[in-house]
Design goal:
Order of helices and strands: HHHHH
Largest sheet: none
Number of domains: 1
Shape: elongated
Structural class: mainly alpha
Helix content: over 70%
Length: 163
Amino acid sequence: MIGKSLERFCIGLRVLIGILMIALALPVAAQVIARYTGIIPVYLWTEELATFIFVWIVMIGSMVAVWDGTHFSVEVFSEARSPLLKLLQKSFVLILLILFGGMFAWYGIEYTKFGSIQNSVMMGANMAVTHVSVPIAGLGWAVFSAYRLHEAITEYRQTRTAS
């Protein structure tokens, strides 16, 4: 049940990335048209908006990548053959991800507080709008990795009882 809820949440994140990509195309297109055609005046706030949207796309994309198991993992050793060694390999990476995500979530709160006392230059938007993406992403990494660790342990237990 938790896995299905997390999968639905991740589908929602993918949809949100798609919406943000479309939203990103608008200020970038306005910048290109303004700079190279002169049809519309150059608005510098579009550059800030594009940066804000891009930060969110990166952070949400990193959460999706952690869920898919395609982020933060480098194979240094070949895949283990024994179920216990497979579990240890997966667990090592997942535990590091949980710790790293927890650090991002914890220290990201202070980072967001720091951003909340600043405003962007062109738009005047509060910088907490982008800074809050850091603790949210860290929490996502930690939760998704903890669930994947639970799955790995369950898989190991099943292979151990089956043999």
